[in-house]
Amino acid sequence: MAAFSYTVTLPILPIRCSSNTNNHDPNKQNLNKLKISGVPTRSVKIDTLTTTAGVAATSVASVSENGYISKEQVRQNIPTQKQFVDSHRQGLIVEEGYRQTVVIRSYEVGPDKTATLESILNLLQETALNHVWMSGLLSNGFGATHGMMKNNLIWVVSRMQVQIDHYPIWGEIVEIDTWVGASGKNGMRRDWLIRSQATGHVFARATSTWVMMNEKTRRLSKMPEEVRAEISPWFKEKRAIQEFVPEKIAKLDSKARYAISNLKPKRTDMDMNNHVNNVKYVKWMMESIPDQFLESHQLSGIILEYRKECGSSDVVQSLCEPDEDGILNSSMGQHSEISILNGLSFASEIMEGNGLLGSLNNAPARFTHLLQAKGETQDEEIVRGKTTWKKRLPTKPFSA
Fold first, then answer.
1. Annotated catalytic residue 273
2. 155-177: string of b/e by CB count within 10 Å (b at 16+)?
3. Active site residue: 131, 166, 275, 369, which one?
4. DSSP state of 215
5. Is residue 112 within 8 Å of 393, Cβ to Cβ?
6. What residues contact residue 40 under an 8 Å CB cut-off, 6+ apart?
């Protein structure tokens, strides 16, 4: 059956608290003058300052010749043209890339009322997909462009690094910026910044490297020129984390100090590309760390190197080994200057009167991790990891 494209205008019914619309039109919004608790948000440069929220014009890509639109297309309403503002996702295209405003929900925090690591990683993934959504490049895949779908290609992450100085608290409003850049000839880099909307203070930074895989053969693929033409106009040169020499993660063996075996993926752990969700890998890594340590420390950094995709039939083993040489070799071995580490520095500890010993006591601890698929004859690496931890502080809102 032949298919053609045309534009369909779908009404969006806003919820109104009052029927009086003479003085206030909820369909007109000035995005540079939104106020929260009487304080205007930071002004940002966008390509359009106003939007009509009551009616959204969206191009539907595949419609049968009799004009029928599938229920899935109506429900998703995937745009095929660049959108500057999305009132539903609280996101907008800015000069730096894409910005989304998020309120930390009660189910995204732990007992200390701060956002969990899993919640932060989920927010990173969500903003990345929303960025592709608003770009107009999203096909019916999970973050795949139209050119990728034509070539049976999907994105897979090869490396990810997250640095967390402070954790948002329940009810806090945060802004998440994300953008993409080139990574070699066939890869793409995606970065993130998470900041407090109230103070502008940066809570976390993250960077990742992505490559393409053929969905059918499960082999890595070069980037087709049509895909490069789609995504290269969005590339930015800036970086969230300046990493001149990537840290090399050593492989652990079965004699690691801490190990948990027989971890098995479930259907709920899989994404649309039949990969185990990246957040699940991190949870498996945390399970091998002693509970006593987790109660007294808070994760401040993580590096993941992905080696092999994990399927639903795999049985996974999580290995963990503390770094005995501690912080001196890892953070000061190659640099003579005093390094700032995860919001705490040796200089600040000494100036506060704690001395060098106090600074060492508060220095982050480090672990090396390995997730591997258990095989009858040989185990296969899935992910290598490195985590950095600092002493857990009493919960209190961060103030500049």
1. yes
2. bebebbbbbbbbbbbbebbbbbb
3. 275
4. T
5. no
6. 33, 34
Choosing from 122, 140, 273, 362, the catalytic residue is 273
Q: In the chain, how many H helices and how many E strands?
A: 9, 21
Token pair of 75 as six digits: 């429900």
Tell me which of 2.40.128.110, 3.40.50.10790, 3.10.129.10, 3.60.10.10 is the CATH number of domain 249-394.
3.10.129.10
Q: Residue 63 to residues 56, 67, 133, 345: CA-CA distances in angstroms?
A: 18, 6, 19, 59
Give the integer Cα–Cα distance in Å for 233 and 93: 14
Instruction: Tell the residue number behind the tokens 């053929």, with chain if given.
Output: 214
Token couple for 45: 């440069």
Structure-token pair, residue 291: 């509970």
Q: What does each of the 400 residues of the chain score in pLDDT, given as a tens digit? A: 444 443 433 444 443 444 444 444 444 444 444 443 444 445 555 544 333 333 334 444 444 445 555 676 678 777 778 888 888 888 999 988 999 999 999 999 999 999 999 999 999 999 999 999 888 888 876 788 999 999 999 999 999 999 999 999 999 999 999 999 999 999 999 999 999 999 999 999 999 999 999 999 999 999 999 999 999 999 999 999 987 677 789 889 878 888 888 888 887 787 766 677 788 899 999 999 999 999 999 999 999 999 998 888 889 999 999 997 654 333 333 333 323 333 333 344 444 444 444 444 556 699 999 999 988 788 999 999 999 999 987 655 554 4
Q: Environment class of residue 374 by beta-carbon count within 10 Å: exposed (0-12), middle (13-18) or buried (19+)?
A: middle
Q: What is the pTM of this model?
A: 0.74
User: From CA 345, how far away is CA 208, in angstroms rounded?
Assistant: 26
Kindly name the residue from 310, 320, 342, 369 that is annotated as catalytic.
310
Annotated domain spans of the chain:
249-394
d(CA 393, CA 396): 9
320 assigned to active site? no
* DSSP result, 101-147: EEEPPGGGB-TTSBB-HHHHHHHHHHHHHHHHHHHT-B-SSSS-BHH
Angle at which helices 278-287 and 117-135 cross, to 10°:
170
